[in-house]
Amino acid sequence: MNLTRRKLLASTMALGLGTALTTAFPLVALAQTVDVAKLMEASPLGEKFIGKEDAPVTIIEYASLTCGHCANFHKGVLPEIKKQYIDTGKARMIFREFPLDPVAAAGFMLARCAPEDKYFDVMDALFADQRAWAFTNDPYNAMLNFSKQLGFTQESFEACLTNQSLLDGVNAVRDKAGNEFKVDSTPTFFINGEKATGALSFEEMSKIIDKYL
User: Fold this and answer.
1) How far apart are the C-alpha atoms of 154 and 130, rounded to whole Å?
2) 205 CB contacts (<8 Å, ≥6 apart)?
3) Predicted TM-score (pTM) of this structure
4) pLDDT digit string, tens, across residues 50-94
5) Checking phi first, is residue 35 left (phi over 0); if not, alpha (psi -120 to 50) or beta?
6) First and final C-alpha spacing in the chain
7) Residue 109 in contact with residue 163, Cβ under 8 Å?
8) 171 vs 97: CA distance, rounded Å
């Protein structure tokens, strides 16, 4: 079901802890393959990635900002992946939006509204302090207050969350992932087209990456 900006604002103001925790994250990684050419087509919002474009391994992550396992990956596993593979030119990582709920969609929109060179800084901050803004009885005001720490004003915050074309882009990324690549939970990774779902450890992800080096 696609979100409209009106539903987004209304849902974000009303949404509490329950929705954010009900749809998440199997714990077991299952390897599959997909059409790599289709997978590598850029999203309508443009790709956000770290690493060299000509790296031999491409990791694509579909994540939700209200997914606890996604936050744990970004805080605990990604730094080591970055150190061992991305910073050394062996891999690049593309991040794509797969919001599980309106709060996550709003968070992705804020990251996209930030200055382009601050996108990953905003994403890191949102994952690092996930409980401060995502899992509250009043996520709208919690997110508004959190956004002010990132440089937003109330006006720029509301302008961002009522940007229908941006929301449509987030929806399109999620819907294509679900319809074409059978993504139905977060985090979901594609490593050179090989699909792995769930809370992968560094060792589990490293084992897949190393097959393509």
Assistant:
1) 20
2) 59, 77, 81, 189, 191, 196
3) 0.86
4) 999 999 999 999 999 999 999 999 999 999 999 999 999 999 999
5) beta
6) 39
7) yes
8) 8
